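During the second year of the project, the team shifted from modelling isolated chains to modelling whole assemblies. The rationale, set out in the original proposal, was that interfaces cannot be judged from single-chain predictions alone. As a representative example for this report, we include one of the complexes processed in the last quarter. Its constituent sequences, exactly as entered into the pipeline, are reproduced here:
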Amino acid sequence: MANEKKMNFVILGLLSHESLTGYEIKKRMDTTFKFFWSASYGSIYPTLNSLVQDGLVTKLDITENGRDKMLYTITAAGKELLKQWLVLPVTKDELRYETLMKVFFGGKIGPSLTLEHIHNFESKIKNDLPSLEGAVQKLTEIQDEEDDHKYFLLTATFGKQIYEAYLEWCEYAKKILGGTSSNQ
Amino acid sequence: MANEKKMNFVILGLLSHESLTGYEIKKRMDTTFKFFWSASYGSIYPTLNSLVQDGLVTKLDITENGRDKMLYTITAAGKELLKQWLVLPVTKDELRYETLMKVFFGGKIGPSLTLEHIHNFESKIKNDLPSLEGAVQKLTEIQDEEDDHKYFLLTATFGKQIYEAYLEWCEYAKKILGGTSSNQ
DNA sequence: TGGCTCATGTAATCTGTTACATGATTCT
DNA sequence: AGAATCATGTAACAGATTACATGAGCCA
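Output from the structure prediction step:
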């Protein structure tokens, strides 16, 4: 109880909106959160079971489309604990970019090999940006002043803006390192 | 040998420039890397010893200013392994922002409590930005086309640009959530 | 029938932090 | 004299990933 582990609260947060299976929780994270939070099944399922043990979530064995699933639902205690955590000050924001590490020591391998890292980074960002832009557009359209959309829009916008800033930096880096503009 | 652990290479990278003590390594990270990579003594010292075991680094007991220190120096094998790692493709870039998590679920606690998280985030960024700007300016001035400065400038510029993008997002977030512009 | 997605979970392992433990030197 | 910084390290623990293990339903 009163565990500090953040996975607890991420899952409680998702379940506070609707009941989900472990598999669906993973998918939500991968589509909505991925750029600022990720998790594997190896942490999701054990966390769900510990939440059940603590009475913060209930587990229901259901059959849907002839498929057996475990549906998890947040309890009143779970909702309460989630709110308590949400108001606590943030304890850690972390960026850990191996790409920057390799760029920092780029002098050891020279500009052309360093540029490869920058190109790869750029490709990943360009690949992920459209879904963020799509989310921003969709959430902007449904400007219903309603419930949670405003907050989803804020995080999606963060992703979009930061990814755009990354791409600007890539252009700058290519200029500095004398890379040609040929992508791909 | 052939360990994947990145701390190995971060330390080898720092030592490839000059011999350092564990304490100095920590300081370098805290001043130069902090925004994209961090580590505690609890991982630095054991890593250094394992690097010595593997013959990638040598350990020398010296006395300086009446103080006993362990000075670590990279070996030829260490330099070689570092270069080999630097050219390998990046395996992971990770951003894990608890702040965004709390903003995402902000609907549960409302705009004013969510704005507190945004204000705290903004304060931290504003606090760290000047040192990045200072680094960029200093590295821009010594435009000597020389050795590693170009690469240091690239990473510092990344930090500066991204932090500026964060601040722009904070302004947007405050507007969306109806926060007053009173900082501090 | 074969491959993909849906679906759940465990065990081993990895990587790192926090807290503890200690002590000298330098600054005020 | 006391606080801050310099300096090194360990032990316990936390938190998460990877690989493994398994199996059903859906689509081509």
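The first helix of chain A runs from residue 6 to 15. Residues 4-7, 39-40, 42-43, 65-68 of chain A lie near DNA strand D (CB under 10 Å from a C1').
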